[in-house]
Specification:
The chain has about 240 residues and is an alpha+beta fold. Helices cover about 55% and strands about 20% of the residues. A five-stranded antiparallel β-sheet has the order 1-2-3-5-4. A two-stranded antiparallel sheet has the order 6-7.
Length: about 240
């Protein structure tokens, strides 16, 4: 069984928790008592989804009902206790950040045990080191993946959005014919400068997108056709 750590608050009493497969779990009975549910089993059965609760086996025998963070929030939201919001604030601002940062609660009990129990201190230090290594590995992975993701996004933008000339080629018709058809059917209009613009309702439908581009010292906006737009126009032009 994963080691249980106790966190204490003068208003809400003792809350027992454990970390299971990198996920924080709370002893359901403690949460229900803090939120003044009279019947723990009924409260958890009524308000906590089955995937958010688990019967943890104790080393000395028997089981204990624990709930994850999602289950915790479900009980908080349905609690009639006026201090439920304060309880949530305490858990989210003190308890959870401490677990995620250190792998254990940095309470007086934890610190005292660390000073008197060499094995526990080693375990605590090992957890902290492992957490730091996981975060470092994640940072490196993100650094590697970010440029790849940005490059992929740029390829998607270039490949899937097309101007009117390329759209006409894909549809097998002339550019002038396509533009005139879009104007006549109220998909496009020309602004005061004569530039082709899409009506907002068709942008909202995902048929067109605007893309900003810079040419020399000048910036402008181009109307491009999306994949959905091309398929829509292809079907309409076939009629």
């Amino acid at each position: 069984m994963n080691e249980i750590t106790v966190f204490e608050n003068e208003n809400f009493g003792k809350i027992r928790t454990l970390v299971k497969e990198d996920e924080v779990w709370f002893v359901g009975k403690d949460i229900c008592q803090a939120l003044e549910y009279s019947n723990t089993s009924k409260a958890i059965n009524d308000h906590v989804d089955i995937e958010d609760r688990y019967n943890e086996t104790l080393e000395r025998g028997g089981t204990i009902l624990i709930i994850n963070e999602s289950g915790l929030y479900s009980l908080i939201l349905r609690s009639k206790k006026p201090e439920a919001k304060k309880f949530k604030r305490w858990v989210t601002s003190e308890v959870l950040p401490s677990i995620r940062k250190h792998g254990a609660y940095m309470t007086e009990q934890t610190l005292e045990r660390a000073l008197t129990d060499p094995d526990f201190l080693i375990q605590l230090a090992t957890q902290l080191k492992e957490e730091q290594q996981r975060r470092k590995a994640l940072e490196i992975e993100n650094q590697v993946m970010k440029p790849k993701a940005e490059y992929f996004d740029s390829l998607v933008d270039r490949e899937l959005l097309t101007n009117f000339r390329d759209t006409a080629k894909e549809l097998g018709i002339g550019q002038k014919y396509l533009v005139n058809w879009l104007l006549e059917n109220s998909y496009l209009y020309r602004d005061a400068k004569g530039k082709l613009k899409a009506y907002q309702c068709h942008i909202d439908k995902g048929l067109f997108e605007y893309k900003d581009f810079v040419r020399g010292k000048y910036a402008s906006t181009q109307t491009l056709v999306t994949v959905k737009g091309k398929e829509t126009f292809r079907l309409l032009l076939l009629k």
